[in-house]
Design a protein that fits this description.
By secondary structure, this protein is α/β, with parallel strands linked by helices. It contains 13 helices and twelve strands. The longest helix has 21 residues, at 149-169. It is globular. It starts with 31 loop residues before the first helix and ends with a helix.
Amino acid sequence: MTEPAKARRPRSRSKRASTPDAVTPPTGEAPASDLTSPAPEVEASTTPIEAPAAVPTGVRARRRIVVTGGAGFVGSAVCRVLHERGDQVVALVRDPGRAGRLRDLASEGVELIESDLSDLNRLAADLDAADAVIHAAGSYRVGITKVERGAMWDANVGATTAVLDAAEVAHVPRIVHVSTCGVFGDTRGEVVDESFRRDLRDGFASWYDETKYGAHEVAEQRIRAGAPVVIVLPSQVYGPGDQSAVGRQLRQAAAGRLGYTVLDAVGLGFVHVDDLAAGIVATLDRGRAGEAYVLSGPTARLRQAIEVAAAVGGHAPPRLRIPTGVLRALVPIGGLIGRHGLREIVDSGAGVTYWASSAKAHHELGFSPRGLEEGFRDTFATP
């Protein structure tokens, strides 16, 4: 596997966002009104926004857009937005036969291509004649075993390297790399902006954390080399079809079936998958090459989000909370109880915050995500 170039030592000092979303440090608790409202309006910038230099003036109206990870939770939503507005969409997937989220779009003309993101020549051919590529493929899981680490490195760092190499070979004029707010690490109750850099001396909470940071570094290295890359940094994504651990807890809370909470002090930004997809496409259209954009909705502790989900479903939130200390005590015997990656899970969620402001995306891209209550009603509504 290919290791990324050695990461530079980032500065550790936080730069506070000029317009925090929903959290007022130092308490780190989001006011309830902010959780049920859309992200706050930000005064529009009076500075004209220049068209992104990376987009050629001669691009045809119906563009050919390649989306890696097109069958995934985020990638499929992006494909839908692009298709509905008339773009020619090519979704790169591992197995077209298992691309259930794209079944209806495939019948309407979205092209599914089985692609190996480790095969540079094949990738370059897949990207041939593309007006842009959105790299949304990746592996997301916290708490993996050591034997699974190689595959995750390949899926996150290796695939990002290969896609950017192939895009260069194919002369793709526009690239959107989907990163994560997690690259900031623990923001310690601060709502930060895109200029924030984590202190690498703190280490990484999980192998996922480390591989996504590595992929982000690869994208930034290409930007410094002049590649037409723009980066988006989503927060915790939710919505219909969300199969993440956080998504399962929220769904159970909305259904009144969540008996207890664990690690519910973790601070997250929450963005509906449809809002994220719209933000990614807006970045494709109007984002400035070489820049990064946080795409996050309201910020909250997980327990607050669980309370909103329970209220949306007409239920009381669970009263029982498993103390973090109990989980830490189980870490040494995690393997014996079938939890080989328990240390990663605890380190990733024990009161840390992953809070970042999307004010820049609001100013430049018109990004305006919905509030938690509205988003949860859409996600957990009973037909």
